[in-house]
Specification:
Blueprint lengths: L1 H15 L3 E2 L5 E7 L6 H17 L4 E7 L7 H6 L5 E5 L11 H4 L7 H14 L11 E7 L4 E4 L13 E4 L3 H9 L2 E4 L5 H6 L5 E4 L3 H4 L8 E4 L8 E6 L1 H5 L4 H7 L3 H24 L3 E4 L2 H26 L3 H14 L3
Parallel strand pairs: 2-3, 7-8, 7-9, 10-12
Antiparallel strand pairs: 1-2, 4-11, 5-11, 6-9, 6-10
InterPro entries: DctP_fam (IPR018389), TRAP_DctP_sf (IPR038404)
Keywords: Signal
Organism: Stella humosa
Amino acid sequence: MICRLLGLAFLAVIALSPGATSAQGTTVLRLSTWVPPGHELNRTVFPTWARSVERVTDGRVKVEIQHDLAAADRQFDLVRDGKADIGYVFHGYHPDRFLLPQLAELPGTGADQVAASVAYWRVHEAILAKAEEHRGVAVIGVMLHGQGVLHLKQPITQLADLRGLRIRVPGGVSTAITAALGIRPISLGPLQAYAAMVEGRADGAFFPMESKESFRLMEVAKHSVEMPVGFYDGTFSIVMNPAALDRLGADRAALLSVSGERLSALAGRGWRAADARARSVATVAGNILSVADAAMELEFEDIFGPIETAWIIKASRERKIDARAALAEYRSIARTFSE
């Protein structure tokens, strides 16, 4: 009886271990997710990719989506240390590590999530990866959420109205944007923003439109302002533990064949669909969605121009790349990409 219990306990440990292989020879990869269960990433993007992985490996590799293994800002370490096999990292939460992803966060590209995600993947592979900012993990895809939107408890009529407001900021380029706008930035994870506004600790938050629904912002921030050129974009890398990838043997190439640009485009389509659905739901709920007028847009363009120049100088100096050329290549691909 004791031996049987010990055997069951051992099997349970194996089942919970990252990259576990069953008695039938099936490898189960644990994918860590930190957004709510109903988020588009969990509803469609990662399940669709998981089915593709299972199909191209003839069922030998399965991907299991697991929630709440670590906070959003701990995902890189989680995957690097082998506590999960796969995860996705929001670069804005790691300002000391990631500088080059800000290339795709700068306002003004004018592309949707699919085009931007594909362009970012191509430029990452051709140029940015050489700087090894993702050292310790394997990048198997990238993605951009929709343009950053300013969600507020009270309406504004001009950019000057933002001065002194306490706004949740996700990091990256948005940090520089908020400083230039005179906003008092608040560093909060996505799951904490709702409570901060309910409790009066925040006046608003920067998020993509989809967060109206996924993080329930439509309940607490009923006024949303979009900038035609975008306030900022948000970038992610989809990463895998290198040892877990290598353990796949011949199936490594199969998994990668449905990753990379294909996974990046899939994720971009998910973010695009999420934005569209949230826009509709928020409108029905009585939220007021407005677009900055021409005067506000012109003023904003004067603000982000120097921020872009500063990034080019810093990235060129610290990462030893031609940042201006990389940015131009990214925008060229994003603006001309066609599905």
